[in-house]
Specification:
The protein is mostly beta strands and 152 residues long. It has a single domain, classed as YhcH/YjgK/YiaL (Jelly Rolls), CATH 2.60.120.370. Helices cover 9% and strands 46% of the residues. It is built from 1 helix and 11 strands. The strands form 3 sheets. Strands 1-9-5-11-3-2 form a 6-stranded antiparallel sheet, with helices on one face. A 3-stranded antiparallel sheet has the order 8-6-10, with no helix packed on it. Strands 4-7 form a two-stranded antiparallel sheet. Strand 2 and strand 3 form a beta hairpin. The longest helix is centred in the first third of the chain and has 13 residues. The radius of gyration is 15 Å and the shape is globular.
């Protein structure tokens, strides 16, 4: 996992050859205030969605993992907590859904919890089981997120 601010995104371009294209999309989406919806960047290799929602209580959110895609979860507006745990320390809850590239895990006491605010992002690799979209407090403010999925 990686957590950082958009101003530092170029530091990670060498991690994956699609990161530059993904972050260029995020920058443009922020600058032009893209509407909620799905966006194709490079076919199924890189695609995105712009989402708006209120943060969830921990009990209402799920730990998820992906096998075929890396997630970049950028917070454009608002703030949320994201929890993450290594797949080796997680217990599978559901079978893998190949079509949606997702599997869900039981809650983990070994997870770390990070506050991600506007202008910041988390990058989750297949070994990073994550529970995003957690409310910062009981007065859950609206969150706008740009989620970019990058094929491995």
């Amino acid at each position: 996992m990686i957590f950082d601010t958009l101003q530092n995104c170029e530091k990670y371009y060498g991690v994956h050859n699609a990161f530059a294209k993904a972050f260029d999309f995020i920058k443009k989406a922020v600058e032009e205030n893209y509407a909620v919806g799905k966006y194709e960047i490079d076919g199924r290799k890189i695609h995105a969605s712009v989402q708006e929602y209120n943060g969830k209580a921990e009990a209402d959110a799920k730990y998820e993992g992906h096998r075929k895609y890396i997630d970049i979860q950028y917070i454009a507006c608002g703030a949320e907590y994201m929890q993450v745990v290594d797949v080796q320390k997680a217990t599978l809850k559901t079978d893998y859904n190949e079509e949606k590239d997702v599997e869900f895990y039981h809650d983990s006491e070994k997870a770390g919890k990070i506050l991600v605010e506007a202008g910041e992002y988390g990058i989750f690799f297949p070994n990073d089981i994550h529970k995003p979209a957690l409310a910062v407090d009981s007065n859950s403010a609206p969150i706008k997120k740009i989620l970019v999925k990058i094929a491995l």
